[in-house]
Design brief:
Length: about 450
C-alpha cells in the first residue's frame, strides 16, 4: 500500500515537473516577454551584473532554448534564474530555484525534501523505492504473462486493468530505470560501467594533460556576443544552448559552451541541452578542447545523454512531454484504482471466509448427523442380536420342557445369520406354552413320597 501511494505521488509530481516551466510561465507571464531585436548576450550579462553587484554570474542560456529570452543563473548560496529581454536589454523578473510550488514538488520528487537525515540521504530513499517500483512493474508483467498461459496466481483483475498495465509496463520500466540513474548517478554509473564495460569517462570533462586555460596576452577578452558569433560560424549546423563566461577578474579561465551538434536528445532545453562541450580561449576564441559524445562508447553515451531526456520525454520534444504526461496520468489512475481495489479486496476476502466457514459448519453438522445415525444403527443391531440370543435360549428351554412332558416341539426355525442388517421377527406365531396347565403325570407309589412334604 505504501509503495502504491508513492507510485501515485511520483506520477502526480512527475506531471507537474514535466510542465514546470509552462506552469511558471503561466503564473508569471512577464518572465518570457520580449520585444523585437537582440542587443546581444554581452549587454544582457552587463545588465545582470549591474543589477546584482557582488553576485556570481553563471551560465547564460540563449534565447533559442529559453522561449526567446536570455536566462542567466545568478548566485551560489541562493541560486536563481534572471530572465532578460534581449531587445532592451532589460530584466523581466527572477525565479528562485527553491521557491514556489514547482520547486517544492521537485524536491519532493527527487529527495523527499531532505538531502540527508540521520545519515540517510533522501536520494537513496527515492532510489530504493524506485527499485521496488521496478520489481513491482516486472512482477506485474510476469503475472499478466502467467494469466496468459493459464497460471492463476491471484484473483483475476478486470480485463481493462490488465491491458492498461501491460501497455504501461515498458514506459514505466524506462522511466524508473532512468529515474534511478538520475537519483543515484555515482552508484548507477559504477554498476553500468561494470556491466557494459563502458568506463566512467565523460564528454564534458577534459582529460588530463590537455591545456584548457586561456593565454593572457594582455589584450581585452572577447565578450559573450563575439563568442556566440564565432561559435555560430564554426558550427553552422549547431545550436548554442549555454555559455559560461569567465568572471571579470579571472583572466585565465576559459569560455565554456554547450552546443547541440547532430542529434541531441536534450536539444532545446536551456538547463540541459548541448551534447558537445567546447572550451575556448577567452581572448582569441580558439578552441582549446572539444568534448564530443561520439568519443565515448554507446553505452556510456546512453547513461550521460539519454537518461534525463528519456525520463522526461523531452527526447521527442513537446509531443513527448504530452505523451509522458498522459502515461503518468494513466499510471496515476491505475495506482489509484489498484489502491481502491486493494481496500475493497479485504471485504471480498471476509465474505469468502464467512462463506467457507458456513460450508465447514454445514459439513461438520452433516458429519455429526452421520455419526449419530451410525451409532444409533449400531445400538439397534446390538439390541437385535441380544434379543435374538434371548429368544434362542427361551426356545431351548421350551424344547427341554416339552421333551420332559412328552410333547413334540414345533419345527425349529432355522437360525437367521447375523448379516448386520435388520432382522424381522414373526410375532404372529400362535404357539404358546401355558405353564399353569395341570399335566397328568403317572407317579409310582414309591416316588410319591418324594412329592409329599417331610
Amino acid at each position: 500500500m505504501i509503495l502504491g501511494l508513492w507510485v501515485a505521488f511520483q506520477s502526480l509530481s512527475g506531471v507537474v515537473l514535466l510542465f514546470g516551466d509552462s506552469i511558471e510561465h503561466w503564473s508569471k507571464p512577464e518572465l518570457t516577454r520580449y520585444g523585437s531585436g537582440d542587443r546581444g548576450a554581452a549587454e544582457a550579462l552587463a545588465v545582470v551584473r549591474q543589477n546584482y553587484p557582488g553576485e556570481e554570474v553563471g551560465v547564460l542560456a540563449t534565447p533559442a532554448v529559453s522561449d526567446g529570452v536570455y536566462v542567466v543563473e545568478v548566485g551560489e548560496s541562493d541560486p536563481r534564474s534572471v530572465y532578460v529581454d534581449p531587445s532592451g536589454p532589460r530584466i523581466n523578473g527572477t525565479r528562485h530555484h527553491d521557491a514556489g510550488v514547482v520547486a517544492l514538488v521537485r524536491r519532493l520528487h527527487r529527495r523527499f525534501l531532505f538531502d540527508s537525515l540521520f545519515g540517510l540521504k533522501g536520494a537513496w530513499v527515492v532510489g530504493a523505492l524506485s527499485i521496488a517500483w521496478l520489481g513491482l512493474s516486472i512482477g506485474g508483467l510476469v503475472t499478466a504473462a502467467s494469466h496468459r498461459f493459464g497460471a492463476r496466481w491471484r484473483s483475476d483483475p478486470p480485463a481493462w486493468h490488465g491491458l492498461l498495465g501491460v501497455l504501461l509496463v515498458a514506459p514505466i520500466v524506462l522511466v524508473v530505470v532512468t529515474g534511478i540513474r538520475l537519483a543515484l548517478p555515482a552508484g548507477t554509473d559504477r554498476v553500468w560501467a561494470a556491466v557494459t564495460g563502458s568506463g566512467l569517462a565523460r564528454s564534458d570533462v577534459p582529460p588530463e594533460g590537455v591545456r584548457i586555460t586561456s593565454e593572457d596576452r594582455g589584450g581585452a577578452p572577447r565578450n559573450a556576443t563575439e563568442v556566440l558569433g564565432v561559435l555560430g560560424r564554426r558550427y553552422p549546423d549547431g545550436l548554442v544552448a549555454r555559455l559560461l563566461m569567465p568572471q571579470p577578474d579571472d583572466r585565465m579561465a576559459p569560455v565554456i559552451a554547450g552546443i547541440s551538434v547532430g542529434f541531441d536528445p536534450g536539444r532545446n532545453e536551456h538547463d540541459y541541452g548541448g551534447n558537445t562541450v567546447v572550451f575556448l580561449d577567452q581572448y582569441s576564441a580558439e578552441t582549446l578542447w572539444a568534448g564530443k559524445p561520439d568519443a565515448l562508447p554507446a553505452a556510456r553515451q546512453a547513461a550521460l545523454l539519454w537518461s534525463r531526456p528519456l525520463h522526461t520525454g523531452s527526447v521527442a520534444g513537446e509531443q513527448g512531454r504530452i505523451l509522458w504526461g498522459a502515461l503518468a496520468v494513466a499510471l496515476l489512475t491505475l495506482a489509484s484504482l489498484e489502491l481502491v481495489r486493494g481496500r475493497a479486496r479485504p471485504l471480498v476476502v471476509r465474505r469468502r471466509q464467512r462463506s467457507v466457514q458456513r460450508q465447514l459448519r454445514r459439513r461438520k453438522a452433516l458429519a455429526r448427523g452421520r455419526r449419530i445415525h451410525a451409532g444409533r444403527a449400531a445400538r439397534a443391531a446390538r439390541l437385535r442380536r441380544r434379543t435374538s440370543r434371548r429368544l434362542r435360549r427361551r426356545r431351548k428351554v421350551q424344547a427341554r420342557t416339552l421333551a420332559r412332558m412328552g410333547r413334540t416341539p414345533p419345527g425349529a426355525t432355522p437360525p437367521v445369520p447375523d448379516t448386520g442388517t435388520d432382522i424381522e421377527i414373526d410375532l404372529t406365531d400362535t404357539f404358546e406354552i401355558d405353564l399353569t396347565d395341570r399335566a397328568d403325570v403317572d407317579v409310582d407309589a414309591d416316588d410319591r413320597s418324594r412329592f409329599l412334604p417331610g
